[in-house]
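HUMAN: Now follow token order:
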Amino acid sequence: MSSSVTAIVESEKPKKKKERKMAICKLKSLLSLWKCNSSLVSSPFRTFSSSQLPPHHLQNVGFIGLGNMGSRMANNLIKAGFRLTVHDVNSDVLEMFSQMGVSTKKTPYEVSEASDVVITMLPSSAHVIDVYTGPNGLLHGGKLLRPWLLIDSSTIDPQTSRNLSATISNYILKEKKGDWEVPFKLDAPVSGSIIAAEAGTLTFMVGGSEEAFVAAEPLFFSMGKSAIYCGGAGTGSAAKICNNLALAVSMLGISEALALGQSLGVSASTLTNIFNCSSARCWSSDAYNPVPGLMEGVPSSRDYNGGFASKLMAKDLKLAVESAKMAESKYPLTSQAQKIYTELCKDGHEAKDFSCAFRHYYSGMDEPHDQ
């Protein structure tokens, strides 16, 4: 069974198409009711009362990868009332969750055996492949799976996402879960910083079965502010790569312009005011300005600490370059951006937020806001 809902629908007979559309409409109606009920709760998180449990197909959630992003996403699921089972290679993190009363497991397979849904948030494609197919991985138990849904929120290459979805399409469920008879996989990387993960305001970009996407929305909206369906398997991963490519080029363009302006005698504060009320306005200028001293609450205001690390941007740009080559697409800006962030990492700034290019590549100057 293909994990791409588009391919499925195109190959089905009209009657089957109608049945699938009706199923999706039913799920959307149930989700609307869930959102309405959840909105009655005064907590900033979408929580469940004792008489209002999470949907039956989402009650037991496994979470693998409890790093800076994953730990905060898992915390928000706990606050929203989901019953979690977690795993991470870091034993200290597992101990912290254990002390919170959360069930911890030694292997991904043990998480799989305890869960209806498993979410992974891992550093790279290699880590994802290992967690899924390695010794004691999620797929360790032959061709039978307990979870009906596997969601990977890691930023990885689209081909790996598609390959894993194709592999899982050959599995069957150990037991039927409500209306679900076969397992599905969604690639659902996120946009948003550690702060957004903490606040539960992430954006999910989701590829895979639309039916599974609709059914999983309570999970997404317990961790984020929006979830956007992108299409078949791998399209969520592709969307994330494109988003970060645009972000990297935007940040470098703003940084280059602001540093040039300083060299020409125009303050970054003045240029930022111009950008933000004219055609150059963008997120990198009006919400995440790279000039230290101009904006509070962003990494540039704290020596570029606590944001999206340059090494992660370099990794994502490498994925973009590889994807562009595979698609036979031109990528001059992607290539140049990758070189700049790779150079920043080699110069010792890999842990600094990617906006540090302003200071450490363009030699831009700090600037008090009232200058």
